[in-house]
């Protein structure tokens, strides 16, 4: 056996081995695309916490188009026609034998999106509680913000699930809390808002973070008093008032309204909004569809116009199309024109709702004349004559729900309002066999 | 001709060994093809019992000295039956005619990373395709198209008919649900990337809800870049028992592509030109309207439009208008190859320009390949592979969308009585029945993938030691695959859906840039040891491998475009996303092959791998393999002369599949509002314990060859299980996450593969080669540690895949009335068969065809549902079951109540390829062109000539979700399949 190995070959071998074995270890590559959640959980600085604040605010908008389609279509406020997805006109309206599915986008997407925002808020809470880079007041500010938003997001899911309930305690993905019923969930949400109130009261004069222009209505005109915890608290109390009427705690609602941004005048649009832009990393208003669009449509339910009082300026929320649109036996001639561009903000809660909550709470606590005057702010503010009907609790409830229908059109209230008053039977049925759903099913993946 | 090249190289090396001269005989002669009579260059001529040999030159001539006065010479040539001839001192001229072999039983198959074994000795059923099978019948557009329907044990589904390809390939069933389900592609030792990269169309189509990137964009696979005509052979390692040598990259099998290389001798110049046309393969038709039907489907407002059309007799077949283009197909190829004993080269050039069946779509490719082999000295030689590709495909706008903008979705609700054609000023009318005017969309949009790609590979062989019984070589191999993919999707602001509708952004320019760099290195030491008088040979391999994968995708979405500008900065808003993938793998490899006189061949190997994709990056994963083949016919006791091969074989192996990139991270993703930077948790929860899934495959088989390979039967059964199955567990949404990657189950595939090669008919003037194959696979989820979950498609209302313990991995479930969610079908075919035929008449006329039958296997057909809902289905008003309710109404009624009508049997019988070629006889060529022209061939061919199917869609081969995982077979207004017809002209100098 002759050995041919030469120095030259050793060289080649060395090159070969050096190519293959520069080191036997492989480096653990950190996520090249994104920061990890662990990176903020310990001793996070203000910039990191502020990213979470903005993220939480931004996450509130995920899939709200689907949320509005759910409550708007089931509540017969509008039709959602889609050339691509038939389930808006079948499942949501209960066409024929169709029922709501627990694993279809209209159930899962809004649910997942709201809990994603809740997760963000929970991470913010955990991070703010586990850092010594912020002052106690700053911490209270973060906690007040996070818990308020968390409460709002849980409430959104509860409005869909209704009696089916929601999970409230979702901190630990390995050990999620139970699904609690509607009453318990509302109690927990109210409790969260109250906790947030306490945090905000201890948060000093300013927040260490900024929010989008969706909160600018809450800023006082005094330039020396910039947006701060006291302003945000008005939003917190507005939500608390909404939750209180949902809980039929009407005196509580009146109390909450006192701390809110309620103004008993026609400054209807003062409020808190989701904002949109087409800037990088942002999204545009998913509810906007241009006039006379084809294919993908949101069209006012014909009854919105048919039932309206002539002269009501809220009819400007819809506009006659050049041509009616028809799908699956449904026809409408009206586009929804609440939004005029894809960067228009979408209200979370605004003064007009607060006035109506005020009216509702007054009716329910027997102060009927206060209620009438509040309802008249709405009526006259929209070009109608003052209320001239019976001043009884029942008649005023009917009037209040009617004003809510027109004032809060396309804001996701009608279905919930009629459900609260057991009046879902009043919703129009367009096709024989259609159903009006009372609750959405708990998503399949929850394993309930 | 890599395999052949290795043999020859060895022979050349052997020739250089100094030899003691004894009494010698010199023999010379010419080797020719027994059929055509043309000389065969490169035939190896070996003196039996010695290491002495030579090869024939370009004219088929050889000359060899025998060390003794008499002896035996063996003439062998790939694809031909070897001959051994006695030589006596009296013989000094010996002309040999070699007969073409039916199949390549003598070819070698790759069993190690640096070693090969003769097919007759292989313990695995390795499917392989040669040039004739790949490109010999017709001209495929892309490589994936070239292997469709041809491989036993593979289920290959074209995603659509869009120019530029796009295929899902599954070998021996589904091997991964969320991990890598596509095989590894290796070209000349270069591990190449086969990504499908989204063009960001989702920003316009909204097919997957929000975001710009989705898997419903009908992207092509990057394997499409390889020029099929450069390929010498394709070998497919279908399961772990064969593919274990590729370790953790090989869970879905390995496709090994070997490109053409030069041969010693005269420089050969081959030019070929294809001219063809392409047409839609199958149309669905349009609905016929009456006033009543229009009123019912489109409302009273549409009636005047209908009456106007009726008056003018202007009903437009929009299917024909949109998909009825006759595309011109042009392919020009020039190959130059040749070489001396030291240096051989192959240059392959391609210019391909193909139009699609939709106007303004098409595929263009330019490819240049340069392969070089050089022998530096008797100890060193190297092989270089290099390939530059520039490809461009215009793919239109098809598949699912939620905005009414894709061609098919808009077409599905557009009746024939409106006129969408532009007026004299070029203004397109608005489509009142859909979100877009698809004629306008087709004419004005751009959706282009453009690639520049370079593949380079170098193999350096070094003879470390050479002796009587042992020789050792070092093989060093490096491979590089770089490409830059540019996706350009332009939606001008004048489009109907850019003016109004949910995706109206006053124009959108979506431009993506993806850079991909894969490098792989390997070094092996291979020792061949012969003992016991050459009766026992050992081949030992020890090696190390390293793979680096880097991908960087940037996607820009610019909206509110300024005028008709398309540059990203000529816009009102730009959003950007970036995604990087970085993987580092290292492996060690050992293999021992033992061959006892070609009677018993045993192999054992082990690969150790680690990867940055695993949670524990430095833990070695071990992938063992072992196999045994027994050639009974080679034993002395074997008396049946008729049976020249009777081989029993069994093989076992393991391979792995990496978790999807990023599975271990729980991360934030950016999400901004109010101009402030925000972070939200990604929907995927990380798993810091994630590990590779592991495939264990046992296969056994029987190969029998009768009457000198006139009939060859190959039968294989296999059982492969995938443990630690990687699953995207759908976690409760209330956790804030929606998915998590877990190792949570076990999947089993069992199957049978049978192939019969025959020569049913052979006379001097007619020869018919035929191969018939049959294969089936049954999968089952044998263990599932997460709750059963739906996957892919669009939920149980419309039918969805459903992963459930004890059920087929590809079952389709959906709602059915009061029964709730029940199994409605299975995407897995009952079986598949193909029938490959080559008929040669008088050695000049070749007729060949490939029939492919897929029996069973269901699709989820939502195209039909969309046309029903849009009031345009061709059978809308028919009543097939005569119950008084029309077909469309029945299907619409089922919506929300039963998904059964949407789950449809996708059985088909397809004449995939057919070709007829005429080789001008050599005397005729000589008469006309003298000695300048070597050969001249003309032919005609076609693919997709017919598809017999009951499936009510454009093609039963379809996939809205691309090649991804198991969601193939979902049909949402795809780019229709096409038929291609060619005239071919080939000339060789």
TrEMBL record, chain A:
GO terms for cellular component: cell outer membrane. It comes from Pontibacter cellulosilyticus. Belongs to the SusD family. This is RagB/SusD family nutrient uptake outer membrane protein. Residues 340-422 form the RagB/SusD domain. Pfam families: SusD_RagB. InterPro entries: SusD_RagB_dom, TPR-like_helical_dom_sf. The lineage of its organism: Bacteria, Pseudomonadati, Bacteroidota, Cytophagia, Cytophagales. CDD domains: SusD. Coiled coil: none annotated. It is found in: Cell outer membrane. Gene3D superfamilies: 1.25.40.390.
Automatic annotation (TrEMBL), chain B:
Residues 121-254 form the TonB-dependent receptor plug domain. Residues 397-774 form the TonB-dependent receptor-like beta-barrel domain. GO terms for cellular component: cell outer membrane. It comes from Pontibacter cellulosilyticus. Belongs to the TonB-dependent receptor family. It holds the Pfam family Plug. Its main location: membrane. It is found in: Cell outer membrane. One of its GO terms (molecular function) is siderophore uptake transmembrane transporter activity. It comes from the Bacteria. It is a multi-pass membrane protein. This is SusC/RagA family TonB-linked outer membrane protein. One of its GO terms (biological process) is siderophore transmembrane transport. Keywords: Cell outer membrane, Membrane, Receptor, Signal, TonB box, Transmembrane, Transmembrane beta strand, Transport. Residues 1-23 form the signal peptide. Gene3D superfamilies: Carboxypeptidase-like, regulatory domain, TonB-dependent receptor, beta-barrel domain, TonB-dependent receptor, plug domain. The lineage of its organism: Bacteria, Pseudomonadati, Bacteroidota, Cytophagia, Cytophagales.
């Amino acid at each position: 056996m002759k050995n041919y190995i030469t120095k030259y070959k050793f060289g080649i071998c060395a090159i070969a081995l050096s190519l293959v074995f520069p080191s036997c270890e492989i480096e653990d590559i950190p996520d090249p695309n994104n920061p990890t959640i662990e990176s903020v959980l310990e001793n996070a600085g203000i910039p990191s916490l502020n990213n979470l604040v903005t993220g939480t605010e931004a996450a509130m908008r995920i899939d709200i188009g689907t949320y509005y389609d759910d409550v708007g279509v089931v509540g017969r406020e509008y039709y959602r026609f889609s050339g691509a997805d038939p389930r808006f006109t079948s499942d949501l309206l209960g066409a024929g034998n169709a029922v709501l599915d627990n694993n279809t986008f209209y159930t899962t997407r809004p649910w997942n999106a709201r809990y994603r925002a809740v997760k963000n808020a929970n991470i913010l809470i955990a991070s703010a509680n586990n850092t010594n880079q912020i002052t106690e007041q700053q911490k209270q500010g973060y906690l007040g913000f996070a818990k308020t938003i968390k409460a709002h997001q849980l409430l959104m899911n509860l409005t869909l699930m209704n009696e089916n309930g929601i999970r409230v305690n979702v901190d630990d993905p390995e050990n999620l809390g139970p699904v609690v019923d509607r009453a318990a969930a509302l109690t927990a949400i109210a409790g969260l808002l109250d906790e947030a109130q306490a945090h905000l009261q201890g948060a000093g004069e300013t927040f260490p973070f900024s929010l989008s222009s969706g909160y600018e209505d809450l800023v006082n005109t005094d330039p020396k008093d910039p947006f701060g915890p006291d302003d945000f608290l008005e939003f917190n109390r507005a939500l608390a008032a909404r939750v209180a009427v949902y809980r039929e705690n009407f005196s509580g609602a009146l109390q909450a309204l006192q701390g809110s941004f309620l103004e008993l005048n026609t400054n209807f649009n003062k409020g808190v909004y989701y904002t949109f832009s087409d800037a990088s990393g942002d999204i545009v208003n998913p509810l906007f569809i241009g006039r006379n669009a084809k294919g993908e449509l949101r069209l006012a339910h014909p009854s919105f116009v048919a039932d309206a009082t002539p002269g009501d300026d809220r009819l400007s929320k819809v506009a006659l199309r050049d041509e009616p649109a028809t799908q699956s036996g449904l026809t409408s001639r009206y586009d929804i024109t609440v939004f005029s561009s894809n960067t228009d903000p979408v209200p979370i809660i605004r003064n007009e709702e607060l006035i109506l909550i005020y009216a509702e709470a007054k009716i329910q606590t027997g102060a009927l004349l206060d209620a009438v005057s509040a309802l008249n702010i709405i009526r006259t503010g929209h070009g109608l004559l003052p209320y001239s009907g019976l001043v009884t609790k029942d008649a005023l409830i009917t009037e209040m729900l009617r004003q809510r229908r027109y004032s809060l059109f396309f804001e996701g209230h009608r279905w919930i309002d009629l459900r609260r008053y057991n009046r879902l039977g009043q919703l129009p049925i367009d096709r024989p066999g259609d159903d009006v759903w009372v609750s959405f099913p708990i998503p399949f993946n929850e394993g309930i | 001709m890599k395999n052949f090249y290795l043999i020859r190289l060895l022979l050349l090396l052997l020739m250089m060994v100094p030899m003691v001269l004894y009494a010698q005989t010199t023999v010379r002669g010419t080797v020719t093809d027994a059929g055509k009579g043309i000389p065969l260059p490169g035939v190896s001529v070996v003196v039996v019992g010695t290491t002495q040999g030579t090869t024939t030159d370009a004219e088929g001539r050889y000359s060899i000295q025998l060390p003794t006065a008499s002896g035996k010479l063996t003439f062998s040539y790939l694809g031909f039956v070897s001959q051994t001839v006695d030589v006596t001192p009296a013989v000094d001229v010996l002309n040999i005619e070699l007969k073409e072999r039916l199949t390549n039983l003598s070819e070698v198959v790759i069993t190690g990373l640096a070693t090969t074994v003769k097919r007759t000795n292989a313990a695995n059923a390795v499917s392989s395709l040669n040039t004739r099978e790949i490109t010999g019948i017709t001209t495929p557009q892309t490589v994936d198209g070239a292997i469709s329907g041809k491989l036993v044990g593979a289920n290959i589904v074209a995603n659509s008919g869009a120019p530029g390809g796009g295929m899902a390939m599954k070998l021996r069933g589904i091997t991964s649900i969320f991990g890598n389900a596509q095989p590894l592609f290796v070209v000349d030792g270069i591990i190449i990337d086969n990504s499908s990269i989204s063009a960001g169309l989702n920003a316009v189509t909204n097919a997957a809800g929000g975001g710009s990137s989705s898997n419903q964009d009908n992207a092509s696979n990057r394997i499409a870049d390889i020029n099929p005509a450069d390929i010498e052979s394709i070998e497919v390692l279908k399961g772990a028992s064969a593919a274990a040598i590729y370790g953790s990259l090989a869970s879905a099998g390995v496709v090994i592509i070997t490109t053409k290389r030069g041969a010693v001798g005269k420089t050969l110049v081959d030019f070929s030109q294809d001219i063809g046309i392409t047409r839609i393969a199958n149309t669905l038709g349009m609905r016929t309207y009456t006033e009543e039907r229009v009123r019912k489907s489109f409302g009273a407002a549409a009636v005047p439009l209908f009456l106007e059309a009726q008056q003018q007799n202007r009903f437009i077949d929009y299917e024909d208008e949109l998909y009825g283009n006759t595309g011109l197909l042009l392919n020009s190829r020039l190959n130059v190859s040749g070489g001396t004993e030291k240096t051989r080269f192959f240059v392959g050039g391609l210019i391909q320009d193909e139009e699609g069946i939709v106007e303004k779509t098409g595929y263009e490719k330019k490819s240049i390949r340069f392969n070089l082999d050089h022998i530096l000295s008797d100890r060193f030689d190297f092989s270089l592979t290099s390939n530059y590709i520039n490809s461009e495909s215009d793919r239109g706008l098809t598949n699912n969308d939620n905005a009414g903008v894709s061609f098919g979705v808009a077409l599905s609700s557009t009746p024939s009585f409106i006129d969408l054609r532009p007026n004299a000023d070029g203004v397109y009318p608005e489509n009142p029945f859909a979100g877009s005017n698809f004629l306008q969309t087709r004419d004005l949009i751009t959706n282009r993938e453009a690639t520049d790609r370079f593949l380079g590979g170098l193999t350096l062989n070094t003879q470390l030691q050479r002796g009587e019984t042992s020789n050792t070589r070092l093989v060093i191999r490096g491979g590089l695959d770089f490409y830059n993919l540019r996706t350009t999707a332009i939606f001008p602001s004048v489009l109907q859906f850019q003016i109004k509708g949910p995706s109206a952004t006053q124009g959108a320019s979506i431009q993506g840039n993806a850079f991909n760099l894969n490098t792989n290195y390997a070094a092996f030491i291979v020792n061949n040891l012969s003992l016991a008088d050459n009766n026992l040979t050992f081949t030992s391999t020890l090696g190390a491998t390293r793979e680096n994968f880097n991908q960087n995708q940037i996607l820009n979405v610019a909206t509110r475009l300024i005028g008709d500008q398309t540059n990203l900065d000529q816009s009102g808003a730009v959003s950007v996303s970036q995604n990087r993938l970085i993987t580092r793998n290292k492996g060690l490899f050992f293999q021992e092959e033992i061959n006892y006189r070609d009677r018993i061949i045993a192999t054992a190997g082990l690969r150790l791998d680690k990867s940055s994709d695993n949670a524990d990056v430095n833990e070695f994963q071990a992938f063992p393999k072992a196999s045994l083949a027994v050639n009974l016919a080679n034993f002395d006791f074997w008396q049946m002369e008729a049976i020249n091969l009777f081989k029993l074989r069994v093989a076992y192996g393991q391979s792995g599949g990496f978790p999807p990139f990023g599975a271990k991270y729980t991360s934030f993703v950016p999400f901004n509002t109010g101009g402030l930077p925000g972070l939200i948790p990604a929907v995927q929860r990380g798993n810091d314990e994630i590990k590779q899934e592991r495939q264990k495959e046992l296969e056994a088989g029987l190969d029998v060859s009768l009457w000198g390979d006139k009939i060859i039967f190959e039968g294989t059964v296999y059982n492969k299980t995938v443990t630690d199955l990687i699953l995207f567990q759908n976690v409760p949404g209330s956790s804030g996450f929606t998915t998590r990657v877990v190792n949570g189950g076990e999947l089993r595939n069992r199957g049978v593969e049978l192939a019969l090669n025959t020569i049913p008919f052979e006379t001097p003037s007619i020869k018919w080669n035929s191969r018939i194959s049959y294969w089936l696979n049954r999968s089952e989820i044998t263990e599932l540690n997460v709750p059963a979950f739906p996957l892919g498609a669009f939920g149980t209302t419309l039918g969805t895949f459903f992963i459930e313990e004890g059920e087929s991995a590809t079952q389709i479930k959906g709602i059915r009335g009061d029964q709730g969610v029940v199994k409605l079908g299975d995407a897995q075919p009952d079986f598949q068969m193909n029938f490959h035929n080559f008929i040669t008449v008088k050695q000049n006329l070749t007729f060949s065809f490939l029939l492919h039958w897929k029996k069973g296997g269901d699709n989820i057909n939502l195209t039909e549902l969309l046309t029903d809902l849009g009031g345009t289905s061709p059978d809308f008003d028919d009543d097939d079951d005569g119950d008084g309710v029309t077909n469309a109404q029945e299907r619409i009624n089922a919506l929300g109540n039963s998904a059964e009508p949407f789950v449809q049997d996708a059985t088909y019988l397809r004449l995939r390829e057919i070709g007829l070629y005429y080789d001008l006889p050599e005397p005729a060529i000589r008469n006309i062109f003298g000695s300048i022209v070597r050969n001249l061939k003309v032919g005609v061919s076609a693919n997709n000539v017919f598809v017999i199917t009951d499936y009510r869609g454009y093609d039963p081969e379809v996939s809205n979700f691309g090649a991804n995982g198991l969601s193939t077979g979902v049909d949402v207004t795809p780019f229709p399949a096409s038929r291609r017809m060619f005239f071919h002209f080939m000339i060789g100098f």
